Structure prediction request, 273 residues.
Amino acid sequence: MKRILKAVLVAFAVLMLLAAVAVSSFPRYAESFFTIRAVELTGEIDHISSVHFRRALGNTTSGTFFNIDLAAIREAALKAPWVKAVNVRRVWPNKINIEITEYKALALWEDGRLVSVDGELFAANPEEADNPMALPEFFGRAEMVQEVTRRYKRFNKMLQVVMPKARVTEVSVNDRDSWALAISSDEIPPTRIELGVEHENWTLEDRFGIVIVQYPDVVKLMKGAPSSIDARYELAFSATLPEKSLRIYRSQDGRRQAAESIAESNRQTSGAR
Prediction:
């Protein structure tokens, strides 16, 4: 009986010793097992270099599953070019997943920043944009960026209804809230259009609509695309070539008056010779 009791006590002591060893070594094992070993990048990633992005994260991804600072990772990620939003989460037992939403570039702002399709300014290399040479240029105060974006979309949509191959290449608004834009296509050189200040009964869209509806006829009558158009008048706009100026009136006789104006200009030129 004594031998059995002694054997039991010895076995119990061994078990306690093993348990003590296991407990003392568990923290080191746990730390090794739960140390973050992988960072997964997901989302529609078209412009972000994974190498540059991981470099931007720095040492924020160092830690374990339990003590990793997700807020610090998110803050660092948002500073990387092209990153609009991020969602950071832990993946059991030793991974981090970063879901990225990129900005989609719409235009180039006057200070070199890009404008997103949602009218947000962001810093990134314009050369990395899709078809960077086709980006329109926006000019104005930074607080006007969303309004400029909205106007651009509206103007471009109106233009392509009348001239599907043309596009708006520039939109600007100055400190007096006077608007201007430029249009061009593969067939016509850039034409600058002054729209002026918005009025309650005579909107910028009204003025632009009058111009683009009659633009093809103006090109024919002037035998070339005008270099500039002044649409700040309520009932008319003027179109200018280097040596000619033409006024089209918003009336049923507008085209006839345009033709007469050109004919008169040609007669004066012939008489001068």
Q: What stands out?
A: Residues 137 and 260 are 37 Å apart (CA to CA). The mean pLDDT is 83. The domain at 105-272 is CATH 3.40.50.11690 (Rossmann fold). DSSP finds six helices and 13 strands in the chain.
